[in-house]
Design goal:
The protein has 352 residues and is an alpha/beta fold. The protein has twelve helices and eleven strands. α2 crosses α3, α2 crosses α4 and α2 packs across α5.
């Protein structure tokens, strides 16, 4: 008997075939791991914040969101990727091997997204986004608050995030720049610059040896490194540019010295010197008058500290960061301009 073929039969067969194909595709998608195309930029931003802070709580504070939002974003990201990105414990969170693998890719992705946003904003003549800025607390020679205030007035849609140097000073800021945690930093650089950074010197601060007025050397006008090598020194922590420069000077002369105390504030160091607790290399014009301290220049060395503005070599400078950099010179104080050209200094209260 011949089989009947007609329009109705053909339509039903085609529909059945389509249903079968759809069902197969659904089963195939369900069997595959999550598609990374579903990743969100905000998830990556939160991931980088947790990686930098090693804490969900600190990351939430940095991002100005509640901690539950950060936790939810990271959990969603881990589900999307099918991998655990952080080992969580009472002591904090650390990246897993999968997290370490994601870290550079996340930074690259966010940099690319910022570049796209910058292009659109330039076309619309409205600057937005955010800038992560690192700085040394209390640096003189630059009106830092004025710089940020003026930038905010000009570009109110740009969010400014500020981080001051911690115990590792300029070295820590340099690492954060290279790791992509900061977009720009104001830091100290000694004789050996940081090769992974683009830097521009803003000012120089010559250093002198501060000794108590009752110290045997106080009757001198100058001293040499050899003459002071046996003193008890008050100095900055390892990682601060001034500490590095001084250590290098003594090492080059084949001399050893004793660090009695470590401080990160010039005023504290000067106070300790005045009370006879040791001697210190400090900015010449940072020494308060009438406090029982004698400033002695070195006649066989030229110790100085320089403030630089820096960005990472391997990362593109965003439009917002570039706009901030254009304002920097306008906020250098007149003494700082003289420093950059003639070697005179106007210091602040902390050196890095």
């Amino acid at each position: 008997m011949p089989t009947e073929f007609g329009p109705g039969a053909g339509t039903l067969a085609a529909e059945a075939s389509r249903r079968t194909g759809r069902d197969a595709r659904r089963r195939s998608r369900a069997a595959r791991p999550s598609d990374p195309g579903g990743l969100q930029l905000r998830q990556l931003e939160y991931f980088l914040a947790v990686a930098a802070e090693q804490s969900f709580t600190r990351a939430a504070t940095r991002l100005h969101v509640v901690q539950s939002a950060v936790s939810a974003a990271i959990s969603g990201l881990e589900r999307e990727l099918g991998a655990t990105l952080f080992d969580r414990s009472a002591q904090g969170v650390v990246l897993t091997a999968a997290g370490e693998a994601l870290l550079p890719k996340a930074r690259t992705t966010l940099d690319t997204a910022r570049a796209a946003r910058d292009a659109v904003q330039r076309a619309g003549r409205e600057l937005g986004g955010s800038i992560a800025i690192g700085c040394l607390s209390g640096v003189g020679g630059i009106d830092f608050a004025g710089l940020l205030g003026r930038f905010h007035t000009r570009h109110p849609l740009v969010r400014l995030w500020l981080r001051t140097a911690e115990s590792d000073g300029s070295a820590g800021l340099a690492r954060s720049l290279a790791d992509g945690e900061l977009d720009v930093a104001f830091l100290g650089i000694g004789a050996r610059p940081f090769p992974q950074l683009h830097t521009r010197r803003l000012l120089r601060l010559p250093q002198v040896l501060a000794v108590p007025a009752t110290h045997p050397l106080a009757s001198r006008n100058t001293v040499t490194l050899t003459e002071v090598a046996g003193e008890r020194f008050i100095d900055y922590p390892v990682g601060y540019a001034t500490r590095t420069a001084t250590d290098q000077a003594f090492a080059a002369a084949g001399l050893e010295r004793t660090i009695a105390m470590e401080v990160s504030d010039v005023a504290v160091a000067a106070d300790f010197v005045a009370h006879g607790l040791g001697v210190a290399f400090l900015p010449a014009r940072a020494l308060p008058a009438g406090t029982g301290i004698k400033a002695l220049p070195l006649d066989d060395q030229s110790l100085e500290w320089s403030l630089h503005v820096a960005t990472a070599r391997h990362r593109r400078v965003g439009a917002a960061t570039a706009a901030l950099l254009k304002l920097v010179d306008e906020h250098l104080e007149p003494a700082a301009w003289r420093t950059a050209r003639h070697g005179k200094a106007r210091p602040g209260s902390r050196i890095g």
